[in-house]
Amino acid sequence: MISTQIRLETGPTVCGDEWSDPELMEYLGARLTKTLGNNFQEYISQDTVRIILNKLEKRGYKLKAMTGLGQTCIWTLHKELDDE
């Protein structure tokens, strides 16, 4: 799930939670951050959503849905599991 505030469409972009794949988050240029008042951490990139979505597409992720929730835009993506 990727999200950003509507008024901040130029960044930052939330790319994952504290349990996200660290290698993927590094590829996206996202840093693990804890915002004052939150009891959780999230990966945040200074890149725009478009750049993040393009990077994820190169890694095999496909956009499944997009919605707005209050002042937040949310994109959900999916990647087929590799046959092992």
Automatic annotation (TrEMBL):
<dbReference type="InterPro" id="IPR036717">
    <property type="entry name" value="GFRP_sf"/>
</dbReference>
<dbReference type="GO" id="GO:0031965">
    <property type="term" value="C:nuclear membrane"/>
</dbReference>
<dbReference type="GO" id="GO:0009890">
    <property type="term" value="P:negative regulation of biosynthetic process"/>
</dbReference>
<dbReference type="GO" id="GO:0044549">
    <property type="term" value="F:GTP cyclohydrolase binding"/>
</dbReference>
<dbReference type="InterPro" id="IPR009112">
    <property type="entry name" value="GTP_CycHdrlase_I_reg"/>
</dbReference>
<comment type="similarity">
    <text>Belongs to the GFRP family.</text>
</comment>
<keyword id="KW-0963">Cytoplasm</keyword>
<protein>
    <recommendedName>
        <fullName>GTP cyclohydrolase 1 feedback regulatory protein</fullName>
    </recommendedName>
</protein>
<dbReference type="GO" id="GO:0005829">
    <property type="term" value="C:cytosol"/>
</dbReference>
<dbReference type="Pfam" id="PF06399">
    <property type="entry name" value="GFRP"/>
</dbReference>
<keyword id="KW-0472">Membrane</keyword>
<keyword id="KW-0539">Nucleus</keyword>
